[in-house]
Amino acid sequence: MTILVTGSAGFIGANFVLDWLAQNDEPVVSLDKLTYASNLENLRSLEDDARHTFVRGDIGDAALVAELLTTHRPRAILNFAAESHVDRSILGPEDFIQTNVVGTFRLLEAVRSYYGSMSENEASTFRFLHVSTDEVYGSLAPADPAFSEQNRYEPNSPYSATKAASDHLVRAYHQTYGLPVLTTNCSNNYGPYHFPEKLIPLVIHNALAGKSLPIYGDGQQIRDWLYVKDHCSAIRRVLEVGKVGETYNVGGWNEKANLDVVNALCAILDDEQPRADGKRYADQITYVKDRPGHDRRYAIDASKLERELGWKPAETFETGIRKTVRWYLDNQAWVSNVTSGAYRDWLNRQYQ
Ligand code: NAD
Ligand code: DAU
């Protein structure tokens, strides 16, 4: 038995592979294109682990994916690979179309052909699990109920539009070709190995570097935060007992305004590593131009996953965010490693 994990050198994919192999011995074949957002350091602890095989490659490379499927005959494929940063999708949507739409399509085609080659026994347990986002549902008004699996898709950024397209393709491959798919739509993750272009790791990194902490617009946009390891446990649960063809929303019931998140981070840093000049990290907060088309509020109703599959998150926002700050303080070498020249170029472009 083997599973294939795509996007395994990114934030959530790496956490998933590390947790998977910490909990059981089923081998993992990892496929990752190694874009700017990835880091093989994330998987360093598995370098000499016979249970893990890393392959550099694109989910859109049909020949490579076909060869991997024939060679390893995975009993499940978990698709984490994506271009994932909303701001980058606004500055340049092309890569998002290529990976999230065309790449997912090519991957599905390869999997369809592989599925067709299986024995009845293999086919009955095979699963294709597609990892998606709550952003496909668009934006909520303050009094709206949280997103359920019944909400319409109303994506507002090139990123979320391409993720929505990929979700639709996955659904269509189930309805049309009978591919045994599962889709998860998760809220904002945070935790170890999060690339510091995203709000939480960016704020921790900038705070420690004495730089400004950029708040888009009025900072009152709401996100629903989930500790990454809870997302990984939800995916394992869906893979194990999820009903074929179903989608499951994943979230931790942790709605927070961005400004509150940044203030919480600053308060933990004041505690854990006070500024040398005795001032507060919150003094570094700076309001900057808003993100175009900025979604005002996301909130996930995860009750289907809780009720039908018995999943619950282990962390509250308070416990998870403290662990996360501690991880960044203890892993400054990882941060230096990922904040290369290319990273600095991005910051200059995005924040002028
Ligand atoms: P990430 O950007 O940190 O990692 C993505 C990984 O995919 C990188 O390692 C990258 O090299 C790889 N990749 C990109 N294009 C590829 C291609 N064509 N072929 C193979 N590999 C490729 O993203 P993440 O935050 O880890 O997100 C993983 C998945 O989870 C994405 O599908 C994302 O849409 C979804 N998601 C993310 C969040 C979040 O808060 N980060 C929340 C919900 C859902
Ligand atoms: O909701 C799930 C999504 O969460 C995932 O699908 C995406 O892959 C992931 O990147 C994340 O998208 P967001 O746009 O919500 O995350 P980001 O960390 O970029 O921003 C979080 C909020 O903070 C958002 O309202 C924008 C704001 N922000 C972000 C940055 C980088 C700022 O105010 N300042 C910043 O510098």
**CATH-assigned fold name:** Rossmann fold
What structural class is derived from the secondary structure elements? alpha/beta
What is the CATH architecture annotation?
3-Layer(aba) Sandwich
* Number of discrete domains: 1
Q: How does the overall form come out from the CA principal axes?
A: globular
Explain what this protein looks like in three dimensions:
By secondary structure, the protein is α/β, with parallel strands linked by helices. It has a single domain (3-350), classed as NAD(P)-binding Rossmann-like Domain (Rossmann fold). Helices cover 45% and strands 16% of the residues. The chain is built from 13 helices and 12 strands. The protein has helices spanning 11-23, 62-72, 86-91, 94-116, 120-125, 158-177, 199-208, 228-241, 258-272, 303-309, 317-330, 332-338, 341-351; strands spanning 3-6, 28-32, 52-56, 76-79, 127-133, 181-186, 188-190, 213-216, 222-227, 247-250, 255-257, 285-288. Strands 3-2-1-4-5-6-10 form a 7-stranded parallel sheet, sandwiched between helices. Strands 7-9-11 form a 3-stranded mixed sheet. Strands 8-12 form a two-stranded parallel sheet. α1 crosses α8 and α7 runs parallel beside α9 (258-272). The radius of gyration is 20 Å and the shape is globular. The mean pLDDT is 97. The structure holds nicotinamide-adenine-dinucleotide and 2'deoxy-thymidine-5'-diphospho-alpha-D-glucose. Nicotinamide-adenine-dinucleotide binds at residues 6-7, 9-13, 31-35, 37-38, 58-60, 80-84, 99, 103, 131, 133, 163, 186, 188-189, 195.
